[in-house]
Structures are given as C-alpha cells and as structure tokens.
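SAMPLE LOG
Freezer: B-3
Tube label: C17
Construct: single chain, 145 aa
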Amino acid sequence: MVKSVKFRKKAKLSEKLETTGAEITQVKFDLIREFISLARQENEAVHLDDALAVLSAMTQSLSMESTVHDHVILQSEIAATFLRIGRKTNDQKILVKAKHAHRSAITLASISGNDALREELRKNYRFTLSLLGDKPKNVSLFKVA
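STRUCTURE (predicted):
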C-alpha cells in the first residue's frame, strides 16, 4: 500500500515536472520572440545577442527533438534581423553575426528536414557574404549542410 502511494506521488511529480518544463520552454520562446521584435523596432543588434544567449541556453538544457521546429524558425528570424539591421546601418560586425546566424539556421533547417527554409536561408547567406565582400562559391550541398 505504501509503495503504491509513493509510486502515485512520484508519477504526479514527474507529470508536473514535464508540464512545468514545457511552460518554461514556452516562456523562453516568447522571450526570444520579444527580443527579436525589440531589435526590429529599435534597430539594435544587442537584443539579438540576448535572444541568441537564451536560445543557446535552451539548446544545452533541452532535447533538440522536442523543440527543433521552433528553434529553426527563431534562429532564422534572428539571422534575418541581423541581416536587416546590418544592411541598414552598414555595420560589418553585425553582418558577420548575420553570416554566422544564417549558418546555424541552415544547419538546423537541414537537421529538421525543412528543405524549403534551408534553400531560402542559403540564398540569404550568399547575399550576406556578398555584402561582406566575400565571393560566395558554388559549394556542394553536403558541405553547406
């Protein structure tokens, strides 16, 4: 009898932990979206650095399978916003961040199997390289991601 009560309590706590974990993940995704929105409104890349920090922390603490779709979308939004701000301000450092953010987004899109998004990101990546003065090469898809 005591074992079954302990088992039920443990099961309830495990369920509560899963629910709480999902809620925390959602709050973090919302926070990242707010950082992206703030960066767009203020044309300040520092907010994107904050978004990347939260995204990176999430990646380290969660399984990728559970959040890969949202992660890909957010990473691509961060990359696009870095590109927009870097292009608007003609800031090479921000464009370099856009380049790296696009590379990460391309990799995530490949992992998730989202080929359409991956192709769009590759185009933006090549555009970012051209803004940086790099000559984009026609590279095999296997080397790009």
